[in-house]
Design a protein that fits this description.
Blueprint lengths: L2 E10 L6 H16 L4 E6 L6 E10 L2 H18 L4 E8 L2
Antiparallel strand pairs: 1-3, 1-4, 2-3
């Protein structure tokens, strides 16, 4: 049975002065995260220029692998943009 993990990441983007700034920063974050073979989308705070919530989904044959991939996602976000992550939540869908 495949393992499916959904990571919700709340972000604070202090440098965003407008929605355009926010979208530029999020596009960079999402492009980097997608290289880790996950699906990512902005799922909340769409009209707030300094907040964002991303949903990141990963699927693999083993739960351990999904866990490592999603930890890698957080590491990648923090490596390039330290302090951006406010909170996270991991849910197992299978």
């Amino acid at each position: 049975m495949p393992a499916v993990g959904l990571l919700t990441v709340d972000l604070h983007i202090p440098g965003a002065r407008s929605l355009k700034d926010k979208r530029r920063i999020l596009a960079s974050v999402k492009d980097r995260v997608r290289k880790l073979n996950v699906s990512v989308a902005e799922i909340d705070h769409l009209e707030t220029h300094q907040r964002a919530r991303l949903g990141v989904a990963a699927v693999a044959s083993h739960r351990d692998h999904v866990d490592r991939v999603l930890e890698g996602v957080l590491t990648e976000i923090e490596r390039r943009d330290p302090g951006l992550v406010l909170a996270t939540d991991l849910q197992w869908l299978s």
